[in-house]
Write a structure and sequence with these properties.
With about 120 residues, the chain is mainly β. Helices cover about 5% and strands about 60% of the residues. The protein has one domain (about 10-120). A five-stranded antiparallel β-sheet has the order 2-1-10-9-8. Strands 3-4-5-6-7 form a five-stranded antiparallel β-sheet, with no helix packed on it.
């Protein structure tokens, strides 16, 4: 019965985000704990990834991974707000998370604007 809750959890993503004026549609998300941080990784259909998490100051930190890059660029400025909460379901021993990010910043050659909501990120 424990598998029932985890078998039907697919990512739910909505919102509008622009990176350098280009609209990015997100098609998947992962709990940041998989990568060693409290937050979320959003993968765009264009190959770009955004990692969003709370910094020790409580501000939202952002790391941008350009398409095909394995090393991201940290935008070392406050970039909006992030709400994040755990869900009850677990997939492969990773608890699902949900939340919403509002992005508004320019740094390190990137301008991010918009908002995205996410659920069932494991």
């Amino acid at each position: 019965m424990a598998l029932w809750g985890s078998c039907f959890c697919s990512n739910k993503l909505s919102g509008n985000v622009e990176v350098n004026g280009e609209k990015v549609g997100f098609n998947s998300c992962r709990n940041g704990l998989v990568y060693g941080f409290r937050g979320v990784e959003l993968s765009g259909s264009n190959g770009m990834k955004l990692r969003l998490g709370h910094s020790p100051t409580g501000e939202m930190g952002v790391i941008v991974f350009a398409k095909g890059e394995s090393v991201g660029k940290e935008l070392r400025v406050p970039c909006g707000s992030l709400s994040l909460s755990d869900q009850n379901s677990t997939v492969n021993d990773v608890k699902n998370i949900q939340g919403k990010a509002v992005l508004d910043c320019t740094a390190e050659g990137y301008t991010l604007k918009g908002e995205v909501s996410f659920e069932n990120c494991h």
